[in-house]
Amino acid sequence: xxxxxxxxxxxxxxxxxxxxxxxxxxxxxxxxxxxxxxxxxxxxxxxxxxxxxxxxxxxxxxxxxxxxxxxxxxxxxxxxxxxxxxxxxxxxxxxxxxxxxxxxxxxxxxxxxxxxxxxxxxxxxxxxxxxxxxxxxxxxxxxxxxxxxxxxxxxxxxxxxxxxxxxxxxxxxxxxxxxxxxxxxxxxxxxxxxxxxxxxxxxxxxxxxxxxxxxxxxxxxxxxxxxxxxxxxxxxxxxxxxxxxxxxxxxxxxxxxxxxxxxxxxxxxxxxxxxxxxxxxxxxxxxxxxxxxxxxxxxxxxxxxxxxxxxxxxxxxx
Length: 318
Fold this sequence. Notes:
Blueprint: H1 2-18, E1 29-41, E2 48-63, E3 66-71, E4 81-88, E5 91-96, E6 106-113, E7 118-127, E8 137-148, E9 171-174, E10 180-185, E11 188-193, E12 196-200, H2 205-218, E13 222-226, E14 233-237, E15 251-254, E16 261-265, E17 268-273, E18 276-280, H3 285-298, E19 302-306, E20 313-317
Antiparallel strand pairs: 1-2, 1-8, 2-3, 3-4, 4-5, 5-6, 6-7, 7-8, 9-13, 10-11, 11-12, 13-14, 15-19, 16-17, 17-18, 19-20
C-alpha cells in the first residue's frame, strides 16, 4: 500500500518540478551533509526513535534538468543510496526504487539557497511490512548541505601498495562483528546484524557459518561496495584497515597491489596482474578505476571467496 500511494505522489512531484526546469540552478558537485530526524515503527514500542545528527556526503551529477544524487549512509540508512530526479527553480525532487526491492522506496527533496549556497531538504523512507527481515515503519529526516570541492588525484606510476590516498566517498555498510549471527529467514540462511541482513546464502548453511567465522576472526566491521545494485566489487574492512593474516581453510588468490592495472580485455574492463585477471567490470571503466584505487589504498594482496563458483561472500585481505 505504501508503494502504491507513494509512486503517484513521486511522479506528480517530478512533473511539477520539471515544468520549471528551464530555470534549473547548477547544484552539481560534492556536498558535506548534516542529517537528523526520526525512525518510526509500526510493530514495537517505543514507536519513534530519534536519529541524532550524523555527518555524511552527497554527490550530485546534473545534466540540464536531470539529476543523479548519491546520498551517503547515516543513522537509519546503512548504505549509500542513488536517487534519480529533476531540478528547477532551485528545488529538486528525486526518488529511489529498484525492482529487486519492491517493498522499499525512498524520496529526496531539497531547496538550494543562492544567498547562503546551501541545500536544505528532507528524505522519507517507508518500509512495507511484507518482506522477511524488513522492519515495518518509515524514516523521516531533514538535512543541511554545504558544497565542497573534492580532489581525486591520479596515481603516479610506479606506486607502492597502500600509498594512494582514498579521496573519494566509499559505499559502506557498518556492522557490529560481535552482534552478527546466522539466522534462517523465510527458508533462507542469512547473516544478520540485529534487524538488518548483511549476506544471503540461500540453502547453504555451511557457507553462512564459514562466513560468520571469517567476520568474527578478522573483526570485520564494514562491508563496502563498488557499483550498486549488482556490485562489481565487494570488500570488507576492520577498524578502517584491511584485514590481515590468514585463516585455516581460506580460498584465496594472491596478486601484487603494486603491479595490478586496469585493462580492456576483449571489450571488457578488468583489473589484471600480468596475464591473470582479478576482477571483471564489463563496460564500466569508472568502476574498474575506482576499485583499483581502493585496492592500492588498502594494500590488498589476496582476493578470497566463500563458495565457488558463484561465491556467496567475497573479501580482500593483506
